[in-house]
Target: Aminotransferase
Amino acid sequence: MPNIKDSVLSNLNRQVQAMGANAIRAFDEEVSSVPNIIKLTLGEPDFNVPDHIKAAAIRSIEENDSHYAPASGSVAVRRAIIDFLANRYGLTYNADNEIVVTVGATEAIYDCLATLLNPGDEVLIPTPIFSMYGPDVLLNGAKPIYLDTSANDFVLTPEQLRKAIEDSDGRAKVLILNFPSNPTGVTYDKEALTALAAIIKETDMVVISDEIYSELTYNQNHVSMAELLPEQTLLLNGVSKSHAMTGYRIGFVAGPKKLVEKVNVVHQFTTTAASNPAMAAAAEALGTPAGKADTELMKLAYQKRRDYLYQELINLGFEIPNPDGAFYIFAKIPAEYGVDDYSFALDLAKRGKVAVIPGSIFGLGGEGYVRISYAASESQIKAAVKRVSDFMK
Model:
């Protein structure tokens, strides 16, 4: 194997040099070697992609749909996206110039930040939150400003937002929202979003509103930030969570024409275009009554798992914020086990043979918690609860 010079390595992008691997994946890999372990770590739905969606991808291949699609996505999938957003959330977009189809919401996050940020800008990020946003901000030369929401039931308050904007002295360019939230499962209602939107409207900031779990909202109707602040919101979504299509890697950005055109420029230079068969499948998922019915069935199953897991963990002494969406429970470790969530999660994996993710990985306010995914099967969740119970006894 060739050995690269140390002098070459020392000259790499300094932000990349300072970063380690994705902490969620790293912990998952660390405990995966434990024999007979039950993993409730990743946001990986256990459902198969519905047959009619798979058939759409197969048709695309059989019909030799093998040439470059438009950079912003195939016409069919962009039309399906605007139908989806109008049908579910009452949002109106133009398929020609207000939608960009990306390689998952992951690419969408990066593209939006790369479009909006200059060196020295600041990005407000309520925490605990998915661990990808901060590194993407750093890669674009900006500074993440983390806002701990743990004292407010994991919801950003207007007072917190206003103070953060004032403290930034004009450097805050972006607010990132993720709801329903990964890792807490907490979401925002219309009243809370309206209060935040009123403050943002007074500024030139842009909201990157990652609503990838919007279809998995349980006890209320999901309201998009794009409904309340369309002129300053880049809306992110996709089919990974709503239709168990994580491996198809189709996400999208929706927003004002002049902003989305610039996002599309970054997208073109990053990936050219998404895969044609995957876009054909996404068009079927988002643009048909059958696709909507698929999500409803999955949501009912997730809600049943949530209700069971929530009550069992409460009985075992965990404190849990109300998980109104997504497929995660963010559980506070009982006091007698201390606040070292990493040690608790590692011990639970090695001795209890159940893998969860330490809460501190998700930033300020996550200390002393663990994230538990109920995207696993019902039988696995029940077996895991038995093991956790035995471990804690």
